[in-house]
Amino acid sequence: MNTDTKRVVVVTGGSRGIGRAIGLRMADAGTKIYLNYSGDSQDAEEAARLIEDTGGTACAIRASVASRQEVQGFFNKIVQECGRVDVLVNNAGITIDGLLVRMKEDDWDRVLAINLKGAFYCMQAVAKTMMKQRSGRIINMASVVGVMGNAGQANYVASKAGLIGLTKTVAKELAPRGITVNAVAPGFIDTSMTADLPEKVKEAMLAQIPLRRIGQPEDVAEAVAFLASEGASYITGQVIHVNGGMYM
Ligand code: NAP
User: Fold this and answer.
1) Probe target for ligand 1 pocket from 10, 25, 34, 38, with the most ligand atoms within 8 Å of CB
2) Which residues contact 42 (CB under 8 A, 6 or more apart)?
3) Is the CB of 74 within 6 Å of ligand 1?
C-alpha cells in the first residue's frame, strides 16, 4: 500500500459538467483527484488531463455507482493506492423525465438506483476508512427541485429529496468520528444535463432566477470546495443552495 501524503478526493460523475468543474477546482499539487464515470472514457480522460495540466494529480476510473460490486472495487483500488479518502463528492446523477401518470417503472428505478442508491453505496464503501482516519468530508449533490418539487420529474425529485434526508442522517451518524456530511443543491446549471431542454423551458427557468443568469458548473464547484475546506469544519448536515436566488 502506498500511503501517500496527498489529500485524496473522489468525485463520482467527474467526467463532465459539474463533476469535472469540481475536480478542476479542487486540484492542486497536494491533492490526488479520482474522477469516476460509467460511460465512454474519453470525457473522463480529458478531465484528468486538464487537471494534470494545472499541476494536479488525477486518475479516471470507470465504475457505475449503481453497482455495489463496482463501487466496492473502485474504493478498494483507491484505498490500496493511497491508504485514505479525505473527500467524497457524490455527484453522479441522471434524469429520465416524464409525468407521473406516464412514468415507466424502469425509469423510476434507474434514476433512484444512480442518484440515491449510488450515493448510499459510495458512503457505505468509504465510511469505515473515514471512521478509522477520524476525519473526512462527504458532499452530496442534491438539487433545488429536491426541496421545491418539479412537475415532470417525480423520479429525479424523489431521488434528490431522499438524498437530502440521507445526508442529514449520515451527518448525525458520522459526526462523532469527525466526519462532516453536507449537500449542495444547484439550481439551473449549464451542463449536458440541461443542454437539450427546449428553449421555452430554459426561458421559463431563467425568469425564475433573480440573479438573471443560468449557473455555471464553476459556481457549484466553489460551494463544494468550501465544504471540503478547513474553514467548513463546523458545518454538517446542511444543504447549501447555489441557485441564483431561484429558491430562498
Ligand atoms: P452531466 O453533465 O450529465 O454529468 C453527469 C455525470 O454523471 C457524468 O460524469 C456521467 O458520466 C456521470 N454518471 C452518470 N451515470 C453514472 C453512473 N451510473 N455511475 C457513475 N457516473 C455516472 O450532469 P451535471 O449537470 O453535471 O450533473 C451533476 C450532478 O448535479 C447530478 O447529480 C445532477 O443531478 C446535479 N444537478 C445538476 C443540475 C443542472 O442544472 N445541471 C441542477 C441540480 C443538480 P458517464 O455518462 O460517463 O457515466
Assistant:
1) 38
2) none
3) no
